[in-house]
Design brief:
The complex is a heterodimer of chains A (174) and B (142).
Chain A (H helix, E strand, L loop, with lengths): L15 H20 L2 H18 L9 H23 L6 H10 L9 H11 L3 H11 L5 H8 L3 H20 L1
Helix pairs in contact in A: 1-2, 1-3, 2-3, 3-7, 4-5, 5-8, 6-8
Chain B lengths: L1 H7 L11 H46 L11 H18 L1 H17 L3 H22 L5
Helix pairs in contact in B: 3-4
The chains are: A mainly alpha (174), B mainly alpha (142).
């Protein structure tokens, strides 16, 4: 049963347990694609759901739940990436750090070379481009929802997504 | 361009440990418990520090406002020493500037409690000091 049907005013707010059951996987994969490392993703996931637990009772519209969850997860990811950048040498940017995580992880299937190369291509994008690309390509969120989530206009998101796709394709083709 | 991405599909090279998603609700529950415990401990520390600070402020205010016994000169040096001790205590509690003011007030009020004989004696001593200064500064060779 889909607990989170959109545009349905009669939908009751799901319990915290229901939120975890429904969203743990999509939220985990969203976080994982952003922070790459499994252990980091697990930490960010826990921080995200602690915030969800604290704020769920104050969320009045069940329709807004999905975007709200993704926004919390995204904020936690970006915070984590900022912290990581601060603790690492300042000359190294996030792309390099994430690329290292991708190539040194115990939880990556290196036999799937094409998928690894695809992720490497995605990691060449900026955090903002990567966020928009992942939300649109993997999570298939409509631009309107991504707009609510990021605060960017739909037109700007379309341009960002288009540029990201071009950059990824070039990387793969070379 | 889109065809290239279509060929790749949505497969990712990422994997998770066996049973990861099955145990995730439990781990999230434990993380929330830890957070609640941490918050409770933080609240206890905050409450303790606030109470200690409030107690210290009350104690300082009490020391500052406590009326000291009226100094009496009748017993001589002993009483003067007591006055100085009270001034020193006030100085420690309120800081140098306030303590000086308090001490000055006490010196003034000390004169009010002198007997007439003592006051005369005190004035005589003061005049004597003044005289000695005059003698020191006097040019005897003129």
């Amino acid at each position: 049963m889909n607990l989170f049907k959109r545009h349905s005013a009669s939908v009751a707010m799901p319990t915290f347990e229901q939120v975890i059951a429904t969203y743990q996987q999509p939220i985990y994969w969203h976080i994982r694609r952003m922070v790459v490392d499994h252990d980091d993703a697990q930490d960010v996931m826990q921080e995200t759901f602690i915030k969800v637990y604290k704020g769920l009772s104050s969320l009045k519209q069940p329709d807004a739940l999905k975007v709200w969850l993704y926004r919390i997860a995204t904020n936690e990811c970006l915070r984590h990436l900022d912290r990581r950048r601060e603790t690492a040498m300042s000359t190294i940017d996030n792309s390099e750090l994430l690329m290292d995580s991708l190539m040194e992880s115990n939880h990556v299937d290196y036999d799937n070379e094409m998928a690894v190369k695809f992720q490497q291509a995605i990691l060449t994008l900026s955090d903002q481009q990567r966020l928009v690309f992942n939300l649109r390509y993997y999570d298939e969120l409509p631009y309107e929802e991504i707009s609510q989530l990021t605060g960017s206009s739909v037109d700007s998101l379309k341009v960002t997504y288009h540029n990201a796709k071009e950059k990824i394709t070039k990387y793969i083709m070379k | 361009m889109s065809n290239e991405l279509d060929k790749l599909g949505k497969k990712m090279p990422f994997t998770v440990p066996d049973g990861f998603f099955e145990t995730m609700p439990q781990r999230i529950g434990e993380a929330i418990d830890r957070e609640n415990r941490r918050k409770r401990t933080g609240n206890i520390v905050k409450w303790t520090v606030s109470t200690a600070a409030a107690a210290a402020i009350i104690a300082i205010a009490f020391l500052a406002m406590k009326p000291t016994a009226a100094p009496v000169m009748d017993t001589g040096n002993g009483t003067l020493a007591a006055t100085n001790t009270a001034a020193a205590t006030t100085e420690a509690a309120l800081g140098d500037d306030t303590a000086l003011t308090t001490q000055d007030v006490k010196s003034d009020s000390t004169e009010l409690y002198m007997s007439n004989e003592q006051l005369d004696e005190w004035l005589a001593l003061a005049e004597c000091d003044e005289f000695m200064n005059c003698v020191d500064n006097y040019d005897f060779y003129n």
